[in-house]
Request: fold
Amino acid sequence: EKKFELYAKAKAVLYIPFDEDYGYITLEAMASSKAVITAKDSGGPLEFVEDYKNGLIAAPDAKEIAGRIDELAQSEVMAQELGAKSKKRLNDRNITWNNVVKELTK
Reply:
C-alpha cells in the first residue's frame, strides 16, 4: 500500500541504475502514469523510456540528471503528458502478468 501511495504522489520517477537487465521500477512507474527519468547507461529501462516522448534520458552525469529533474519539477504539464504517454506505451506493449505467463507456457 505504501508503494502505491508513493507512486501516486510522485510527479515522476527517477531510476538511474547502471546496466540494469530489466527494471521493474520502470514498469511500475509507467503503470502509475509517471514519467521515468533514466540515464543513457541504465540498460533495461531504455527499452521502455523514450526521451521527451514518455520520459527523460540523461547522460550519466549528476548535473545533467539534476537538470532533467528540474525540467519536470518546473512543468506540471510536461510531467502529466509524459506520464500519460508512459502508461499508454506500457499498455500498447501488453506487458501484463497474464501475458507473461502465457508467453512462458507456450
